[in-house]
Amino acid sequence: MDKQEINNGLIERLEQLMEYKSLNQRSLSKEIGFSYSTLNKYCNKKSNTIDFELIYRLASHFSDIDTNWLIQGTGEMLLTSEQPTASNENDRLSKLIDTIAFQQDTINNLHGRIKELETTNKRLETQVALYIGKQIV
């Protein structure tokens, strides 16, 4: 699953959450204290990334929403009655932060690997150009 598919899934779940809570983009942004223009950009898929701040505010504001569902699409949208909500809020947010930190580390590692491959590619292009006697522009 690529980054765009992950973002699209998150946006679909966000739209389900807004429908469930009877909110539109403007009322949701006002309720959680998040920029309407940024939220609108996400919902209209005009951004390749989604800020941690949005996820954090959603998880903090809607304690009845399962963060695993919100982030990963697993389980049900609403926490069941067997799952504690208020008493486990810190654990829930801690797990959310850990998940996001892990995903950010993965992204950073992939960016580093891309830079390494770009360097190797440039070196190989230079070697090929020297081999065939052409100059690289």
TrEMBL record:
Gene Ontology MF annotations: DNA binding
Keyword Coiled coil included in the entry's annotation: yes
Pfam families for the chain: HTH_19 (PF12844)
Domain HTH cro/C1-type: 14-70
Coiled-coil regions, chain positions: 100-134
Keywords: Coiled coil
Protein name: Helix-turn-helix domain-containing protein
Originating species: Phocaeicola plebeius
